[in-house]
Amino acid sequence: MQRRRLSPQINVFNFNMKIILSVFAFFLVIVIFSSCLGQANPVFIPIPDSRFNQPLKTFEIDVRNIIETEDRTAVDFLPEWLNVFLNGGIEAIERLNSFNGKYVFIEINEGDNFSVLNRWAQFFSSTQNFPILTASRIERKMISAAFFYPDHEYGEFFERLVKNAHNAVYPGAVKEDTYWVKIKTDNEDSASEMYVFFVLYSIDKFIMQNIINNMMTQTINVVTPTNTQAAAINRLRLNFFEGF
Known about the structure:
Largest sheet: 4 strands, antiparallel
Radius of gyration: 28 Å
């Protein structure tokens, strides 16, 4: 089969079209770049921050892998809050009548040393450990609400608020319960067992919201956000407790 050869005129036409399109693309980039520079708020392309490359910590347990529980009962008789948590997360616990009007926090630890884990759970405190849970939850909320990255969206306000949450006192925080289960973990090469400990805390929503609102006010008074950052902070404050 013979190949058709393009005529010289067609080859020249294609070459000229490539030049025209390349020049057009170049000037289009210049126009866009120039328009961005002329604006009060130039287009911002965020550079990923290593802190936000890691996924939020989640924990899932297949109840079929539970081989022992704290009270040695069947898996069907796990505490209601734990059973609800394993199936629906924190939000599902907060919908229970027993936790109506409260925010719920759960800390999880796992390993094969029962004594160490048990000691950790017993000494988990509202003064030292609970603020870490609260600060993490505040940070997650700010990250999820930010259009770009929180450092750029809220400026110094972001870092200072998280630090203040770590150092804050939370009166009314109650250690509701602790519970552990033993699970089997199957790998390709071997099967092992480990303990998983849960610590359940709660705090009245009204109290927590007042603490966070006061914390935000104190933080905004010591930072100097730009107009854009101040607008983002105001939006955050208006909607902060939706889905918190």
